[in-house]
Amino acid sequence: MRPTLVGILLAAGVALTCASAEVHDPAVERPSFLVIVADDLGYSDLGAYGGEIPTPNLDALAISGLRATDFYVSCRGAPSRAMLLTGVDNHVAGFGVSDGRHPEPIQKGQPGYEGRLSERVVTVASLLRDAGYHTSMAGKWALGEEPGNLPRARGFERSFVLHDAAASHWQDMRSAVPRRPRARYTRDGADVESLPAGYFSTRFFTDFVLESIAEARAAGRPFFSYLSFQAPHGPLADDERVSFSGRYDEGFDAIRNARLLRMKTLGLLDQSVQPYPGIPTVPSWSDL
User: Fold this and answer.
1) Are 137 and 210 a contacting pair, CB within 8 Å?
2) Which tens digit of pLDDT belongs to each residue from 168-184?
3) Residues 6+ apart with CB under 8 A from 190
4) Is 242 helix (H, G, I), strand (E, B) or coil?
5) How far is CA 149 from the centre of its chain?
6) Which of 35, 183, 213, 268 could make a disulfide contact with 167, Cβ separation 3.0–4.6 Å?
7) Helix ranges (DSSP H) in the chain
């Protein structure tokens, strides 16, 4: 479950400088930050990065700003999120493994393998909150469920978060985690017992962050908002499957080659880049 950084108005150096400088001087105009993360989004899935999926709003954000081409991620979501929010290696942040349930025996109980955000690190949200910023987040958390590791304890004044690695996008609160039939959500540190009628994760998370940003503006404070979508990590909606019917009939080989060509045209890849030959044990599309 690797998160992909979709739209980023955050540079760790800038954020840390803002937090450590004399930011309370009213004569100093402080920037606001919005970080958008998508769960399991591929590097070239977005239209702005060569994908065939229509993503016009995200494309507009990317094209009007700066498109990064080199973001370091771990092989799993939680370690990547820990690095993104702390600016340190995932082992330092406590995520040498994705969570605390599956370390090797030699790792269990050792520093760096806690499977939760370590007390050794501080989040950018904490730094900016202490510097007078309004801090908020909505979406998937995956960095610890203990009271000391809820978003409220790690720098976020406002939060609405999903704690499960995967869950339904809708009102039913079904968890996709084995042996956990009901997904856990918290709002500002308190457990959520039910979701509102018509709930859909992407829309609700977005609205929560927009409301939080409005609160910051009303108070005359700069903001740091972390919008952590659980989409496009499954399940897919039926209407999405219908609307893309036939789009991928050519198979993954053809889709990959077409994406590479578009990425070269956009200047995101050098013209000399060749497609990865594939894993030997996985047959080509034409052989299936």
Assistant:
1) no
2) 999 999 998 888 889 99
3) none
4) helix
5) 17
6) 183
7) 12-20, 56-64, 77-86, 124-130, 201-218, 238-243, 252-265
